[in-house]
Amino acid sequence: MLPLQTVFLDAGGVLLYPNWWRISDALAEQGVSVAPAALIQADPRARRQLDDLQVVGGTTDASRGWLFFDLILEHAGIPRSDATAAALEHLHRYHTASNLWEYVPPGVGPALDALRARGLTLVVVSNANGTLRAHMDRLGLAGKFDYVLDSADEGVEKPDPRFFEIALQRSGASKDTTIHVGDLYYVDVIGARNAGLRGVLLDEANLRPDADCPRVRSLEELVAEITADRF
């Protein structure tokens, strides 16, 4: 393999996570009690259930996003009701305006700094709703990337390989020296692979041991693997 030069990264589930505290509060306002910790624990299991070939093939990113929150509630033991529907509608309005995926885990910034210190070009390649660039600037992350590509702006979303081809052209990267890191096998890894890139699955809860691709549990582990020249 040629030396790695560029790292594409998904945003949601890799750099950013839902604001579980805001979600817990929205549910509480509707009389539904669930702690943020329970939502956090449900996240990987809901994500794994969502990462299904038929689900991905029959949905868009927007519809998968709200199916994801239904699955979060299911795995947290919260039955669907008019109250949960009202809370999710409130959260949907917030997301449309400001982007609900606003929790940045503490290890994300240092890991990105470590990748940049190695001279790597960093590019966000994410299915999003047109707010991603401004959103990442609000969270203090935009300056850590050379390019930020939002599917709503580009008119195509993963797993369509054209999105990766746009990212390659925009960043001047080569397929042979680029990896893409994402949290959904059928969206990120297969999409990248169909564009001729190497895909890396961020599998934080080790729920995809069957995946035929490199896996890491965190961005810190990604840095360690890159440092050891395993990508």
Task: Report on this structure.
By secondary structure, this protein is α/β, with parallel strands linked by helices. It folds into two domains: 6-15 and 104-227, Rossmann fold, CATH 3.40.50; 20-98, DNA polymerase, domain 1. The protein contains eleven helices and six strands. It has helices at residues 20-29, 36-50, 53-57, 61-75, 82-98, 108-117, 132-138, 151-154, 161-171, 185-194, 219-227; strands at residues 6-9, 121-126, 147-150, 178-182, 198-202, 215-216. It has a six-stranded parallel β-sheet with strand order 3-2-1-4-5-6, sandwiched between helices. Strand 4, helix 10 (185-194) and strand 5 form a beta-alpha-beta unit. Helix 2 (36-50) crosses helix 4. The longest helix is centred in the middle third of the chain and has 17 residues, at 82-98. It starts with 5 loop residues before the first strand and ends with a helix. The model has no long low-confidence stretch (mean pLDDT 96).
Topology diagram in text:
Blueprint: E1 6-9, H1 20-29, H2 36-50, H3 53-57, H4 61-75, H5 82-98, H6 108-117, E2 121-126, H7 132-138, E3 147-150, H8 151-154, H9 161-171, E4 178-182, H10 185-194, E5 198-202, E6 215-216, H11 219-227
Parallel strand pairs: 1-2, 1-4, 2-3, 4-5, 5-6
Summarize this, please?
This protein is α/β, with parallel strands linked by helices and 231 residues long. 49% of the residues lie in helices and 11% in strands.
- How confident overall, as mean pLDDT? 96
Report helical residue fraction: 40-55%
Give the CATH class of the largest domain.
Answer: Alpha Beta
Question: Biggest β-sheet, characterized?
Answer: 6 strands, parallel
Spell the H/E element sequence: EHHHHHHEHEHHEHEEH
Number of domains: 2
- Write down the CATH topology of the largest domain: Rossmann fold
Rough shape?
A: globular
Q: So how many helices?
A: 11
Strand content: 5-15%
